[in-house]
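Note to self: user wants both folds in one dump. Writing first protein now.
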Amino acid sequence: MSYDRVSLTCPPNRVNSRSPRPVRHVTPRQRAVLDLALRGLTDKEIATDLGISVSTVRTYLERFYREHGLRNKTEAVAAWQHYREMERRQTGKRVNRSRPPMRNG
């Protein structure tokens, strides 16, 4: 299943009660930036990790904000986290973050 074809939505903004907006096409590079932001990396750390400039990281994030009616990185990361969870549910991948992986022995 192609990521681009998954029909998912961003969560509604807590400040105003707009209905959820669909997550539109996300480029592979935007996806990489958002995944690293979701892990808690700063813009500078993301830039270093991907070999791009900090301003390029901010550009990718700002485009995501504009396209999805978000105002800042916190809202973008929350929306991306929601999107990824919905994506995993639709593709059938099991996600269990409550327990650490089991060890042999």
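First done. Writing the second protein, which came from a different request thread.
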Amino acid sequence: MEGRHGKKDETNVRRVSFGPFLKKTTNNNKIYIYIRVVSLTNEAARLNGFRDGTEMLTQPYESDNFVREMTETLEELTPLYQQLHAYVRYRLRKV
């Protein structure tokens, strides 16, 4: 994909190439629409001071206490996981 200044824009290529569903689509127009959306999102992000579209779109979810929040979430989910694991073991023994 060509960037604004005629150089290959590696950021856009990397963002677009991760979608394996693009190879399976029967309508190639979807590919070009997707590439255009990614390109416009990245351009808007750069104009707003972000590195790329991904950074801009995930920024609202970032926090200063991310590690603490994830630790708390893991602690909350651990009992559920243990119960689920015990239930699966119980059901598998009956098979």
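Dump finished. Worth passing along: Confidence is low (pLDDT under 50) at residues 1-18.
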